[in-house]
Write a structure and sequence with these properties.
About 70% of the residues lie in helices and about 0% in strands. It is mainly alpha-helical. Helix 5 packs antiparallel against helix 7. The radius of gyration is 16 Å and the shape is globular. The mean pLDDT is about 95.
Length: about 150
C-alpha cells in the first residue's frame, strides 16, 4: 500500500493540534486506559483501519493488556474475558460506529447508562467519534502501519 499523502498533518498543524486536544481530554477523563484501548481497537476493527489496530494493540500490550483479550476482541459477545462495563462500552462502540444502520439503539444506551456516569457517557461517546475520525483519516489517506523488518522479510 502506498500512502496518498506522506505526512497529512504537516499541512494542517491547527487541525492536528485540535485532534490532540480532544485526545488529551479523553485521556484525562478518568476512563480506564484498558477500556479506551479496547474501544479504539474495536472501532478500528469494524472500520478496517490497520494503522489504528496496530497502534492501539501495541499501546494496549505496553500497558499490560493480555494477548488473549486482544485476540478475542472481535468476538467479545461470546467471550467471558470482558467485564460488564467493557461490554457496555463495546456495544456502544459498535452502535455508534455503525450509526447509519443502528440509529444508536435504546438497548445499547441502557447498557451504557447502567455502567457509566453521565460525564463518562459523554467522554465515551466523544472517544468513539474521535477514533472513527482517526480511522477515516488513516484509511482515506492510506496510512501504512509500521512493519517489523524481520517479519517483513519473511
Amino acid at each position: 500500500m502506498t500512502p496518498r499523502i506522506k505526512n497529512p498533518f504537516k499541512s494542517i498543524p491547527d487541525g492536528l493540534k485540535a485532534m490532540m486536544a480532544v485526545e488529551a481530554s479523553i485521556a484525562a477523563s478518568g476512563l480506564e486506559h484498558s477500556l479506551l484501548e479496547l474501544v479504539k481497537m474495536r472501532a478500528s476493527q469494524i472500520n478496517g483501519c490497520a494503522y489504528c489496530i496496530h497502534m492501539h494493540a501495541t499501546d494496549a500490550r505496553s500497558h499490560g493488556e493480555t494477548e488473549m483479550r486482544l485476540y478475542m476482541l472481535n468476538a467479545w459477545r461470546e467471550s467471558p474475558l470482558y467485564t460488564d462495563r467493557e461490554r457496555a462500552a463495546l456495544a456502544w462502540t459498535e452502535a455508534l460506529t455503525h450509526v447509519a444502520d443502528t440509529g444508536a439503539p435504546d438497548a445499547d444506551y441502557a447498557l451504557v447508562s447502567a455502567q457509566f456516569s453521565e460525564e463518562e457517557q459523554v467522554q465515551l461517546t466523544l472517544l468513539i467519534g474521535s477514533i472513527n475520525l482517526w480511522n477515516r483519516l488513516q484509511i482515506g489517506l492510506r496510512a501504512v502501519h509500521p512493519v517489523d523488518a524481520a517479519r517483513a522479510a519473511a
